[in-house]
Design brief:
single chain, 427 residues, alpha/beta, Membrane-bound Lytic Murein Transglycosylase D, Chain A, TIM Barrel, 2 domains, eight-stranded parallel β-barrel, five-stranded antiparallel sheet, 19 strands, 21% strand
Length: 427
Amino acid sequence: MVIHVVKPGETLFSIANLYGTSIQSLIKDNGLEDIPYLITGQSLVITQEQILYTVQPGDTIFSIARKFNTTPAAILNFNNISHPNEIFVGMILVIPQTNGVKNPIEINGYIVPGTEDVNIEIVNETAPYLTYITPSNYVVNRDGSLKPLDDDAIVNNSLNYNVAPLMSISNEGESNFDPDLAHHIFIDEEIQNILFNNILNTIQNKGYYGLNINFERLYPEDRELYNEFLRNAVEFFHQYGIPVSTALVPKTYDMTTGEWWGGHDYKAQGEILDFVIIMTYDWGCIACPPMAVAPIPEIRKVLDYAVTVIPREKILMGIPFYGFNWTLPFKSGDTATLVDYISALQIAARYGVSIQYDIEAEAPFFNYIDESGAEHIVWFDDARSFKAKYNLVNEYGLRGVSYWSLNSEAPQNWPVVSSMFNIVKLI
């Protein structure tokens, strides 16, 4: 796999010729069906097994080797060239592909159930790349019952692809996660037993593989109560061979205060659970000042702390499939609008602007001025930023990754992740 950044004047035809691939392959691998034309600064994934590269003005054997993450000697030997100076503009080189060992990882994808047709379409497109799929989510009630979720199409279809479905439960209230609801359950063992049995019935009746607990915005003083709730859950569900995981907010140290952070105990959860999903995103958020949703330096800070208290082999790192479009200047109380890879490119194409890449955050962005004269900035993710995140998985030796959410389109992610890892299937 190679990532090409579009230069001014390049077309699908010229890029296909440059790499010896087809226009159809470029369109499919990069989700270009609904993009009117290429955008300067846009990344393209080149995925064919054998890359044929046409030497360009200014190229050297050394710059070409860097471009394709190989060595000058490998290119020279593969093409029977005796000296680096023998290459010339227009010459077609066969680029040898490295056959390095790919690490195995587990991949989870959260999905918000929609219509049956949409659910099936999303599963069909993403399931080959998933270990788990997690419909979001069953909301718990104060009496230990569960609000129903229309998840049958997701669970049934995922099993056809050997994807293990995880049942997700949460303490969501009418407008936000409800700490009172969680506290009510934490202090009442009888309600916990009712809840656990209702979850078990759902798992067994629907064919779920495991349980994912997503309790957020807890009272900090309920931290140990939550730990005990998790111990009870693991003891109960392990009787039936059901693995239990949680979703954790991102923390850079053991924060014991704050409505989002205080209730989550990284060290305890690392000891109690089979694995955890750390939600390493939302630095750029709907009501936050403009910035990348998941900048690499911020993710590093979270992982640097997490691996000191949670076994690396228990950590799934969160990856967002969404971005935001902010109106500038941003003021307190302003909100952004959601975008994904496809809609971001459509906006850039509509306004004829170039895509830039922040080398520190390792994320793409662009600015534009709308019809009313208002300035905007859009941050999103593409092949380059996905690859940067996967490099962290290898660097830190993590169990894998988890996406929020499969409902957003991220076509470039799939060729990138499949080129870098072997994806574990558990069923």
